[in-house]
Write a structure and sequence with these properties.
This protein has 26 helices and ten strands. It is globular, with a radius of gyration of 30 Å. By secondary structure, it is an alpha/beta fold. Among the domains are: 228 residues, 3-Layer(aba) Sandwich (Rossmann fold), CATH 3.40.50; 193 residues, no CATH class; 135 residues, no CATH class. The longest helix has 43 residues. The strands form two sheets. An eight-stranded mixed sheet has the order 2-3-4-1-7-8-9-10, sandwiched between helices. A two-stranded antiparallel ribbon has the order 5-6. It comes from Streptomyces mutomycini. Keywords: Membrane, Transmembrane, Transmembrane helix. InterPro entries: AB_hydrolase_fold. This is Integral membrane protein.
């Protein structure tokens, strides 16, 4: 028989813990706990759990904490911030964005073939971006520098560092093939650097293997990432079958096998791109002239490149991610043989190109126009097919709040391709302008070199047009925000029941609320940007294909106004693309050094790196693969040891980490845990943009599985919002909108004007302590214990002190 209530209460230690998780801005444990003296309980210098020094060992003396729970702070900011060198991760922005598209698929039956096709298409777009980046490096190093400038005496004569490659000196490296072989070191080193960074960041951030807490191993490995998993729980003799959410599967936050396979395939694709660029011109020369090189050598080399490329594509298409259990296997045949074979082919290509061909002279440009055109057309076709698949998935299980009716993933994939094109065109245009000195590459007789492929110039030319197209909706949003702020004024004064309102104070509050609502307009801007990019990109391909000249020359005879407009668009776009690349690095360094800048743009970066690398292995590392197992392990260990009550308290991005950690808990631990979120983007951003993982159904499942959940939000918060779930049983998950500021004017309790807090300092609101105490009251004993096995803790806690987290 279960123990009597009096005996159960006597067994309870009364232990209660609040585990604080900060947001994207990062903060110190001293600020979170409100005490300059803190002690690290567990963890390392990268991520750790801290307590006030006086609270160490508080479980042995629960009578000292009758007025509130013991506070712990989990600090994970070092996972995403640090020295300014990490700003270089922004150069991997296209890879991060396409990885987001993988997780943005609409809600649908995960066993459907369209779900697998969706993931396959995203992985193919990701592979094309790797090839595009490598091709851009080849365009700069091999075409512009080694082929054009070094092969032109006027260009090479102005740069002494090119002397050993120049045709003027007639040295050993003066032959075109040997110049290409030497220049291939640059793009090959870039591919090697990407492989190294991917492998190193995996070891540093994501290789922490999550602990298992007695969960059943329900399936063999090799199951696709999107397949549903069922968990069976037993209550007496009755079995209850539940669908385990994706983020709660044991292997979701441990994608070692998939990342290793994708890293091998993308590395091989990069090396093969360099090899094809090096040997392509030599093969064509050998076929069109009396070359001393045997023709069979070029045929064998091309056959090897094609075969290895097909293997790399097959590896990308293969399903390699397992989530039903921790899959610690590594496919050595793929991860070792494939990159090694590609590197061997690259060395063979360099040796083949370096074969002596005395009559070979470099003229014009390398044949990269067709390659870039094929890449751009392939990316556009993949995005269009991806959109068709996404629409079909959305129609099977429509969710009204899903952005763009399920087209968010294709729109983001299109944005990733556009970013890759901008970076490619920008670097190529700027290097060509620098090499050509006072001339303009490709613009007539005054130019020393022919310049980059015409398509890149057309892509640069459409950027000013794209900005002009975005100008009207941006102006419309600004006007609408101003009008909304004016309309909110009377309602704000009525809300505070202010008898003597101040117009300036009312305007500040109204403007903050109206500006916070702009976040909900982001999907429309994204849709317009992606559609315009697709149309303008198609126009750029058509223009370069039909004319074969840069925009300024292609409009000859169309009138002086049109010619001037085309030249202006081409030059402006060229400078904008180059400026954009510099701006990426500048913003990145400022974001990692300046806290205010990080809070401004950090949410976008941390949303992108929250998700595991499932589509692109060279994307920045996923911090959640370390943070989520940390949190779930801490909660499991504490509840198993003390059998106490635990409130995990997450702010901003910390609330998403907290929810993901709760999903990972086994049922006995989850029933002792309450979830408190505030300033949370879990539904407003994640639920709308990632409906398959944070949509209505997963969030309702989270609410039903956790003991109790409370969410605080403000109308002035541009990031957080309600979760829109009715818990039932007389309790609602949402409480809000909270008043911000707390009071309108000066009062006895608040003699000085209260600030408009927006997204920060939720703990400053009295409602925070009230709701935390209510959650602890509701925890209590959840499941009656059998005799001799102990009891759940009973009791409540009033409001207590807690630190402030920023995000």
């Amino acid at each position: 028989m279960p123990p009597a209530p009096q005996a159960e209460a006597a067994q309870s230690s009364g232990a209660a813990l609040e585990l604080l998780v900060h947001g994207v801005g990062g903060t110190t444990p001293q600020e979170m706990l409100g005490d300059p003296r803190t002690t690290r309980i567990t963890g390392d210098a990268t991520a750790a759990v801290y307590r006030r020094t006086e609270d160490v060992g508080a479980e042995q003396h629960p009578e000292r904490h009758r007025d509130g729970p013991v506070a712990e702070a989990y600090c994970w900011s070092n996972l995403t911030s640090g020295n300014g060198a990490r700003a270089l991760w922004l150069l991997l922005l296209p890879f991060m964005v396409v990885n987001l598209a993988h997780w943005m698929r609409p809600t649908a039956d995960a066993s459907h073939r369209a779900v697998r096709l969706y993931g396959l298409l995203v992985r193919m777009v990701a592979l094309s971006l790797t090839v595009l980046l490598t091709a851009a490096a080849c365009e700069v190093a091999l075409d512009l520098v080694a082929w054009q400038c070094a092969g032109t005496p006027e260009c090479a004569g102005q740069r002494s560092w090119l002397g050993f490659l120049s045709t003027r000196q007639d040295g050993w490296f003066s032959q075109p093939g040997r110049r290409l072989a030497v220049a291939a070191l640059v793009p090959a080193a870039l591919v090697g650097l990407l492989w190294y960074l991917s492998n190193r960041t995996w070891s540093a951030y994501e290789s922490q293997r999550p602990l298992t807490w007695g969960e059943p191993d329900s399936a063999a490995s090799g199951v696709d990432a999107d397949e549903a998993t069922d968990a069976v729980t037993r209550s007496g003799a009755r079995q209850v079958r539940q669908v385990r959410p994706a983020l709660g599967r044991p292997g979701f936050w441990y994608g070692r096998r998939l990342v290793a396979r994708l890293r091998a395939a993308h590395t091989a694709a990069g090396f093969l791109t360099v090899a094809a660029t090096v040997c392509g011109s030599a093969v064509r020369y050998d076929r069109s002239s009396d070359s001393p090189v045997p023709a069979v050598a070029g045929i064998l080399l091309e056959a090897g490149l094609v075969l290895c490329g097909l293997v790399a594509v097959a590896v990308v298409c293969h399903r390699g991610r397992s989530e039903r259990r921790l899959d610690n296997r590594i496919d050595r045949a793929v991860t070792t043989f494939l990159p090694g074979a590609a590197l061997t082919l690259l060395l063979c290509a360099a040796a083949y190109a370096g074969w002596s061909r005395p009559g070979w002279v470099s003229t014009g440009t390398l044949p990269g126009e067709a390659a870039f055109r094929t890449l751009v057309l392939g990316q556009g076709l993949l995005v269009v097919v991806l959109a068709v698949v996404a629409l079909s998935l959305y129609r099977r299980a429509p969710e009204p709040r899903t952005i763009l009716h399920g087209l968010g993933g294709p729109a983001v994939a299109m944005l990733a391709c556009a970013l890759g094109g901008v970076m490619t065109a920008g670097v190529a245009q700027r290097v060509a302008d620098w090499l050509d000195g006072p001339g303009t590459p490709g613009m007539g007789a005054g130019a020393d070199i022919a310049g980059p492929p015409v398509l890149l110039s057309w892509q640069a030319s459409v950027i000013p047009v794209l900005l002009l197209l975005l100008l009207p909706p941006v102006i419309w949003l600004a006007v609408r925000t101003v009008r909304r702020a004016r309309l909110l004024g009377p309602a704000i004064e009525a809300e505070y029941e202010e008898k003597h309102p101040e117009p300036g104070r009312t305007r500040r509050i109204a403007r903050t609320r109206a500006a916070a609502a702009l976040t909900d307009s982001a999907p429309g801007i994204l849709g317009l940007l992606s559609a315009a990019t697709l149309l303008l990109g198609t126009g750029a391909v058509a223009g370069s294909w039909l004319t074969g000249e840069v925009p300024g020359l292609a409009t000859d005879g169309a009138g002086p106004f049109v010619e001037s407009l085309a030249e202006t668009a081409q030059s402006t776009g060229s400078w904008l693309t180059g400026f954009g690349v510099i701006l990426f690095v500048t913003w990145g360094r400022r974001a990692y050094r300046d806290v205010s800048a990080r809070r401004t743009i950090g949410i976008l970066w941390d949303v992108g790196t929250f998700w595991p690398r499932a589509a692109h292995p060279f994307a920045p590392p996923c911090y959640a693969e370390r943070a989520v197992p940390d949190l779930s392990s801490r909660m499991c260990a504490w509840t198993a040891t003390t059998r106490g009550r635990l409130v995990i308290s997450g702010h901003s991005q910390g609330s998403v980490l907290a929810a993901a950690a709760v999903w990972q808990l086994p049922d006995p631990a989850r029933r002792r845990v309450a979830l408190l979120t505030y300033g949370s983007p879990i539904e407003r951003l994640y639920g709308r943009w990632f409906p398959a993982y944070f949509g209505r159904v997963p969030l309702e499942g989270l609410q039903q599985s956790v003991h109790c959940w409370r969410n605080l939000w403000r109308a002035t918060d541009p990031i957080g919002g309600p979760v829109r779930i009715d818990e039932g049983r007389g309790h609602e998950v949402d409480r809000g909108p909270l008043k911000d500021p707390l009071v309108y004017g000066r009062t006895t309790e608040h003699p000085l004007p209260e600030p408009v807090l927006g997204h920060s300092d939720y703990q400053a609101d009295p409602a925070f302590a009230v709701e935390r105490a209510a959650l602890l009251e509701r925890l209590g004993p959840v499941v009656p214990q059998q005799a001799g096995t102990g009891a759940e803790d009973r009791g409540g806690a009033a409001q207590g002190s807690a630190g402030r987290s920023s995000g």
